[in-house]
Structure formats: structure tokens, C-alpha cells
Design goal:
The structure is a single chain. By secondary structure, this protein is of the alpha+beta class. The protein has 2 domains: 117 residues, no CATH class; 121 residues, Sandwich (Immunoglobulin-like), CATH 2.60.40.10. The protein is built from 3 helices and 9 strands, in the order αααβββββββββ. The strands form 3 sheets. It has a 4-stranded antiparallel sheet with strand order 6-3-8-9, with no helix packed on it. Strands 1-2-7 form a 3-stranded antiparallel sheet, with no helix packed on it. Strands 4-5 form a two-stranded antiparallel sheet. 11% of the residues are buried. The N terminus is likely disordered.
């Protein structure tokens, strides 16, 4: 009986060891499973982070590409210019819009394709607008070119008309001048000589009573007939002009000029002999004198004589 009791007491510890081993095994299996799960979760998280990093890098590259495309588009808008002020205002407004989008892209942290696509739609819209502006500007420039050509032709034609008008005016002026010159009176056979009391020529001062200036006023068919005043102007050797009165003033080339004596004649477009006299009042001196004849405001003759 004692032997049996001992045997039971010895077998009890062996049963307890078996159960503990089983529990340990279950724990290890559970830990291994949990570790596998953790490894899978960590792997998934690492993969997800890596994918997000790749995605963020792609989005960042897309952002920089967008900025470059917006800058290129801004340059295209800047080069698109016309003479039309209202069109230029619209172009400047669009370019300002592009510059604002570029600033916004530089300041904004973009982490999704959705945002990138929004900017790409903006870019596409602005490109379409640019195409329409190119057509409008080209049309305006063509119109401006046509207008400039028409203006140039008009200016050239106006210049030709002005040249022709000036030539015509010049011809008329030349013709008028020729008619005026042609209608001027002329003289010939001009002789100025001192004469004595008896009307004889003399150059001795003590015998001189008068200075006689004689000439023939020539026929001129186109000159206006009527009364004419003929003037003589005697200048002494010392350049003093002899004058019988302080009121002896005539107009020569629109300038007041002193004359010596005058005579009114009735000119009838035929040759007429004229003599004009200056009575010596003691002003004569010895030397060479100049004698000039005037009418209608211009000089028609010149000669000289001497007194000794």
C-alpha cells in the first residue's frame, strides 16, 4: 500500500510540467503571430510613407513644371502687343493674373494632384485666351498696317499735290513777276547836264543856273496808261542829295527816299520826251555828280555829270 502511494506522489509533478509547456508554447505562438502582424503593419506603414514621399516628390515636380509653364505663358503675353490701347489693357490684366498665379504657386505647399489639376485648368484657360488674343492682335496689326499704308499713300499724294500746288504758285508768281517787270516803264537817251541862263550846256559852276535831266520814256503796250510822276535825284560829290524842298520824299522799294525834283506827265503808252529841272540855289560844288530817275517806286535810269 505504501508503494502505491509513493507512485502516485511521484507522477503528479510530471503532469504539471506538461501543462506548463503547452501554455508556454501557446504564448510563443501568440507572440510570434503578433510579431508577424506588427511586421506586416510596419511594412505597410513604411510602404505607405514611401508612396506618399514619391507622390509628394511627383507633385512638387509638377508644381515647378507648372511655374515654368506659367512663366513661359507670361513671356508670350508680354511679347503680344498692338497699337490698340484697350487690347493692351486686356493683355496687361491677363499677364498680371498669370504673375499672381506664379506667386501663389511659389507660396503654396501643394500635396495633391487635385490642386495641381486646378492650376492646370487655369493654365489651359489662359492659353486658350492667348490664342484668341493672338488672332485679334494679328487682325488689329493687319488693320494698322493697312491704315499706315493708306496714310502713307495719302501723305505721299498730299505731298505730290502740295508740290504741284507750289509749282503752280511759283509759275504764277514768276508770271506775275514777269508781267510786273514787263509792265515797268523804261527810259533811254538819259542825259544830265548843267545849263546856263540862256539854256546852253556848261560845266563851269559860276555860269550854271539849272541842272537839266532829259530822257525818253519808252512805249510799253502792257503798262497801265495814265498820269505818272517822274522823279530825279541829284547827288553831289560829297553824297549830299540836292532837294528843292524838305518835303521831297518818294517811296522806292517801300522805303522813303529824298528826291531832287519831279514832274507829272500823262503817259499814253507811246514814246514821250521828258525833261526835269533843278534850279541852283547855291548848293552846287565842283566834282562828279550822280543823276538818277525814278517812277512807280523803282529806279529807271542812272548817269553822271561833272562841274568844275
Amino acid at each position: 500500500m505504501e508503494n502505491k502511494k509513493d507512485t502516485r506522489q511521484l507522477s503528479t509533478p510530471d503532469s504539471g510540467s506538461g501543462n506548463s509547456g503547452k501554455r508556454l508554447t501557446h504564448i510563443l505562438i501568440s507572440l510570434a503571430g503578433l510579431l508577424v502582424v506588427l511586421i506586416i503593419v510596419l511594412g505597410w506603414l513604411l510602404y505607405d510613407r514611401k508612396q506618399e514621399a514619391i507622390k509628394l516628390e511627383e507633385v512638387t515636380m509638377e508644381k515647378f513644371q507648372l511655374i515654368r509653364e506659367f512663366e513661359d505663358l507670361s513671356t508670350e503675353y508680354n511679347h503680344l502687343r498692338t497699337d490698340n490701347d484697350s487690347m493692351n489693357i486686356e493683355l496687361e490684366a491677363r499677364q498680371e493674373e498669370i504673375d499672381n498665379l506664379i506667386d501663389e504657386l511659389n507660396r503654396t505647399r501643394i500635396n495633391s494632384n487635385h490642386t495641381i489639376n486646378q492650376y492646370r485648368r487655369e493654365l489651359g484657360t489662359l492659353r486658350d485666351v492667348l490664342k484668341s488674343y493672338v488672332v485679334q492682335v494679328d487682325s488689329l496689326n493687319q488693320d494698322n498696317i493697312r491704315l499706315r499704308e493708306e496714310n502713307l499713300q495719302a501723305r505721299q499724294q498730299a505731298a505730290r499735290f502740295e508740290t504741284a500746288l507750289q509749282e503752280e504758285r511759283q509759275v504764277k508768281e514768276d508770271l506775275t513777276a514777269r508781267v510786273e517787270l514787263g509792265s515797268r516803264l523804261t527810259i533811254e537817251n538819259l542825259i544830265a547836264s548843267p545849263i546856263s541862263l540862256r539854256g546852253r550846256e556848261t560845266n563851269r559852276m559860276r555860269r550854271i543856273e539849272q541842272v537839266q535831266v532829259c530822257f525818253t520814256l519808252r512805249r510799253n503796250a502792257i503798262a497801265e496808261a495814265g498820269m505818272r510822276t517822274m522823279y530825279i535825284r541829284l547827288k553831289r560829290p560829297d553824297n549830299l542829295v540836292l532837294a528843292s524842298s524838305a518835303d521831297n520824299i518818294m517811296m522806292v522799294d517801300e522805303n522813303p527816299t529824298v528826291f531832287t525834283a519831279s514832274r507829272d506827265i500823262n503817259y499814253e503808252n507811246v514814246d514821250i520826251d521828258v525833261c526835269i529841272y533843278y534850279d541852283d540855289d547855291g548848293s552846287l560844288i565842283s566834282g562828279t555828280y550822280q543823276a538818277e530817275v525814278f517812277t512807280d517806286g523803282y529806279r529807271v535810269g542812272f548817269t553822271e555829270f561833272s562841274i568844275r
